[in-house]
Amino acid sequence: MLLQILTVTLVLLANSAAENEDRHSYSGEYGSASGTPFSYSGPHRWGPITAFRVWEYPYYYIYGIQLQFAHRWSESYGLQRGTKHEVTLFRGELITQVSGKHSTYIYQLIISTSHGRIFFFGQPYGTCFNAFPLDCTDVLAFLTGHHNGAGITGLGMHWAEPEKRE
Q1: In a 10 Å sphere around its CB, with 0-12 CB exposed, 13-18 middle and 19+ buried, how is residue 15 labelled?
Q2: How are beta strands 49-56 and 62-69 bridged, if at all?
Q3: Please, how many CA atoms are within 13 Å of residue 99, restricted to the half-sphere of its CB?
Q4: What does each of the 166 residues of the chain score in pLDDT, given as a tens digit?
Q5: I need a surface site. Which of 144, 153, 154, 166 has the fewest CB within 10 A?
């Protein structure tokens, strides 16, 4: 009898832990992934992505990237050189898809949002990629990747349930 009670208790605890576990999916890494690795997995705990910056070498590839979480800018990766684009998301707007082209570097980024906005950066050169979450209710939580002295060489997208705060 004691063994049955213990077994049922362990099953209930395991189910409870699974229900509280954060869901998370990953797309990538696209590009050559050479150079120094980077990750926004710490700053993403500040809150949802509310803005982003992309630096591009005019008519070529992506130099650098920076994300803002809950109105607080994180570190930038790559180079802050070339043409700088800054996008502020609307209240409640979330990133739902990241597409583009890659080869040695990330040559093009196409960022789509829950409000139907689409932003294009860089040039359409290389192999296509299309990153989106496994669950259609998930959104971009953070990025990981690689960069070298010339630009962004790899990019991976991490998807999770949207935060309820903003």
Answers
A1: exposed
A2: antiparallel
A3: 11
A4: 544 544 444 343 344 334 445 668 999 899 999 999 999 998 899 999 999 999 999 889 999 999 999 999 999 999 999 999 999 999 999 999 999 999 999 999 999 999 999 999 999 999 999 999 999 999 999 999 999 999 999 999 999 999 754 3
A5: 166
Tell me if 81 sits within 8 A of 65, measured CB to CB. Answer: no
What helix, strand, coil percent values describe the chain, rounded to 5? 15, 50, 35
Among 166, 25, 148, 6, CA closest to 88: 166
- In angstroms, rounded to a whole number, what is the distance separating the alpha carbons of residues 117 and 111? 8
Phi, psi angle pair for 75, to nearest 5°: -65, 150
**Cis before 93? omega within 30:** no
As a whole number of angstroms, the distance between CA 62 and CA 8 comes to: 54
**Tokens 């930038």, located at residue:** 76
Measure the CA–CA gap between 51 and 106, rounded to whole angstroms. Answer: 20
Tokens of 47: 């809150």
